[in-house]
Amino acid sequence: MELQPHPDRLFPADPTTRSIARDLYALVKDAPIISPHGHVPPEWIADDVPFKDPTSLLITPDHYVNRMLHAHGVELSELGVGQKEFSEEQSRNAFRILCANWWLYRGTPVKYWMENELFDYFEVRVRPSAETADQIYDQIAERLADPAYRPRALYKRFNIQFLATTDDPCDSLEHHAKIRQTFDGTVVPTFRPDKYLEPARADWPELMAALSEASGVDTTSWAGFNAAMENRRAYFKAAGAISTDHSHRDPGTARLSDAEAERIYQQALARKVSPADADALRRSMMYEQVRMASEDGLVMTMHPSVYRNHHTPTFNKYGADVGCDIPLKTEFAAALQPALADCGDSENLHLIPFTMDETVYSRELAPMAGFYRSVFIGVPWWFIDAPEAMARFRGAVTETAGFTRTSGFIDDTRAFCSIPARHDVSRRIDAGYVAKLVAEHRLEMDEAEEAIRELVVGNPVRAFKLEG
């Protein structure tokens, strides 16, 4: 069967609304991509590393692809996950597995993203199937041998204007230094301190020692810990970072007294902290991160309430971040109140909460963003960065917070070639939502044109402080 993405894909079915959506989409279709939160390894750009093969590019790093196959009996190792050595034949076989099971992705955004990638960037014109797997693999492999398909060339071809990676607080950021010296694109680090803010971790005392070494600050006290965090945040900011990223079981920001924080901190260093005390200290640490953001101006993104590594055997075999994380219900109003009470009116603070619990959009996040000058709503992310969820999101938040208090699209991906396809989905869905308001005579066309430009370009520039 021929592969031919429809030009009106994802637009409303109603002819009048679809026509308006086409016109609005045309205004932003080719707008530069702003990607302020993602997981592309910086060394790919720093060293312009050629992509090895179609599987390591399109399958192995993409959790969305892998988890669906795993659910249908495919071992992650067969897809290259956790494999230091993966032969060409193994790579080809992984691609055959994907194509033979292409029917599993019907109705999912994976199908949309992958078909866009295959059609637009690798000139594939046949639908993935068991019969076409080798043909598609060979065509992609041939393209990957061309220097035009190296990371830096694709960065330009994808029209990426800004790309942020995700980095450990103790990272030297040497790859980012090389990028700044040798590449004219904008690629910046993001400060991700999660594991340093989890005092119950078995390796937390060792992490504190590493933080001390990286910062040059003694971390054997609560005050020293916060000073070390401030030091590393400043280091990242000097290297071009614009934001910090945080993902914990809850978004709590309840501040402890210095004496209580010190007591629990010392217990954690001695590996004697209780789970309840560890959670309390982590929430106080998060309060301090908000306070630091209000002082140093780094944008603070929060991605809470995920049950990490839900399947213990998979975690034990492959490690973290291989697709077995499960969303949890969450609550923001009470969790963020302590920090927002003290810092919510700070001109320096931009706080962007993301969630996979759609119930909080209209109940909590939209009212918060509709009041606090510091709060912007993170758009649908991870499990819900899909067409139906994106449309529900716009309906849930716009009536209370308007069009200007959301973050702009976040691709949140390690799968480099999926970045433009993911942004295209968002642009099409937003065009359809705004078109509906025009068709219902709730917006004039000139207002709709301004709105779609804000959603695609103005919002990420505003929320992530990219005006300069």
UniProtKB/TrEMBL annotation:
Belongs to the metallo-dependent hydrolases superfamily. Uronate isomerase family. It comes from Trueperella bernardiae. The keyword Isomerase applies. The gene is uxaC. Its EC number is 5.3.1.12. InterPro entries: Metal_Hydrolase, Uronate_isomerase. Pfam families: UxaC (PF02614). One of its GO terms (biological process) is D-glucuronate catabolic process. Keywords: Isomerase. It is an enzyme of class 5 (isomerase). It catalyses: D-glucuronate = D-fructuronate. Gene3D superfamilies: Metal-dependent hydrolases, uronate isomerase, domain 2, chain A. Pathway: Carbohydrate metabolism; pentose and glucuronate interconversion. One of its GO terms (molecular function) is glucuronate isomerase activity. This is Uronate isomerase.
